[in-house]
């Protein structure tokens, strides 16, 4: 933190290396477009670097960065862009570990694509709380704080978002079998 406050660029690179992937996943889930998500993340780091002195509690750095990226994404969703005319890319693989067989890879890819499509089909307010809760593992209280809202509102949006996801993912391919049943 001291190095960031002193405007040490190597500290900024370390910050970007540590939080870049997580912020990118969050931004992509929120805006549905890789390039727009990258721009939001870069804006986030630029703003954080410029205003790092305003962060009163260094232990809340991750939460502060997530709040900035969510606000940047919200701002970008409000402004129309020619990019909205083109289809978005799929969420890239987030898991690492042992190399699964080809069948597992195909099934995981299919499920990931279905989940990505289902999340992107949600309204922004549901997509935002789902991303922050499940992908960033924030508590309901932390999400409410980030969104300057009420915890009950966050709980309601999570519940409705999960119900909509269940409906979207439970549809299956017409054989009655859902993706995650």
Q: Report the span from N to C terminus.
A: 45 Å
**Tally of separate helices:** 8
Q: How does the major sheet shape up? A: none
Rg from Cα: 18 Å
Strand content: under 5%
Number of strands: 0
| Helix-strand category | mainly alpha
Uncertain residue ranges = 80-97, 173-181
Shape: globular
Give the H and E element order. Answer: HHHHHHHH
Could you report the average pLDDT, rounded to the nearest whole number?
79
What level of helicity do the residues show?
A: 55-70%
Write the topology of this structure.
Blueprint: H1 2-5, H2 9-31, H3 34-50, H4 61-78, H5 102-121, H6 124-135, H7 140-146, H8 151-170
Helix pairs in contact: 2-3, 2-4, 2-6, 3-4, 6-8, 7-8
Describe this structure in words.
The protein has 181 residues and is mainly alpha-helical. Helix content is 67%, strand content 0%. The protein is built from eight helices and no strands. The longest helix is centred in the N-terminal third of the chain and has 23 residues, at 9-31. It is globular, with a radius of gyration of 18 Å. Residues 80-97 and 173-181 have low confidence and may be disordered.
């Amino acid at each position: 933190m001291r190095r960031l406050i002193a405007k040490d660029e190597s500290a900024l690179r370390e910050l970007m290396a540590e939080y870049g992937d997580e912020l990118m996943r969050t931004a992509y889930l929120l805006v549905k477009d890789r390039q727009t998500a990258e721009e939001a993340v870069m804006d986030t780091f630029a703003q954080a670097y410029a205003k790092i002195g305003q962060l009163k509690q260094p232990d809340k750095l991750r939460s502060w960065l997530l709040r900035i990226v969510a606000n940047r994404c919200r701002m970008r969703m409000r402004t129309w862009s020619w990019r909205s005319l083109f289809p978005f890319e799929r969420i890239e693989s987030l898991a690492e570990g042992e190399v699964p067989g080809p069948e597992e890879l195909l099934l995981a890819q299919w499920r990931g694509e279905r989940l990505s499509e289902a999340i992107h089909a949600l309204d922004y307010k549901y997509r935002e709380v789902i991303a922050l809760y499940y992908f960033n593992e924030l508590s309901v209280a932390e999400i409410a704080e980030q969104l300057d809202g009420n915890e009950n509102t966050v709980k309601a949006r999570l519940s409705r978002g999960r119900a909509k996801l269940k409906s979207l993912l439970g549809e299956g391919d017409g054989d009655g079998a859902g993706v995650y049943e």
